[in-house]
Amino acid sequence: MNATNPIRIKPVRFPARGDEGIELEGMLHYREGDGQWPAAVVCHPHPMGGGTMNNSIVAAIARALVERGVVTLRFNFRGVGRSGGRHEGGRGEQADVAGAIDWLLAQPTVDAWRVGLAGFSFGAAVALYVAARDPRVVGLAAVGLPADRVDVAAAATLTRPKFFITGELDRLAPPGPLRGLVEKLPPPKEIVIEPGVDHFWRDREDDVAARVAGFLAGL
User: Fold this and answer.
1) pLDDT at 71 exceeding the cut of 60
2) Cα dist. 162→21, 117, 123, 124, 127 in Å?
């Protein structure tokens, strides 16, 4: 993917995994050009708190990834925006992520061996569960993961590269529980606690996006 080629953003629609007939809306970030390139799916925070694919951190991650040559799909979970279905507390949303991966892998410009997942807050937890059981996922980047709500046994099955980042002042995803969770996970793994930052990374979105993109683009 030539860095001189223009970046494009295209609205797309794709089905969630399963037989429910749920169609989801998303935005595909890519550069024009031939070839097969690494790809990533980015998952948004909790919809009950107003989370959508247009969240500033999610959008910043998508921008940073495509700038590094990674085709990126951000999308709305079921029941959000123009996506069908209704919110299911993280269970049905895992089928949404699986559907996003299915759709990405069907694109001729995507390298099937280099598809990563990223997520913020609720989206990080959903992405973690999918990555743990989907061998197509080469790595996970989790921002502000609410570790005290994660099923440790399920997370511990993820043996591929993992990157966790949260703010020192994050009260929704505090560093203590995250450190405890990461200690129980198999390598390879990395954790970053960013000083002076809370859950929302206000005015620091590009900083966290660069960290996530650097990790995923390097897989």
Assistant:
1) yes
2) 32, 10, 15, 11, 11
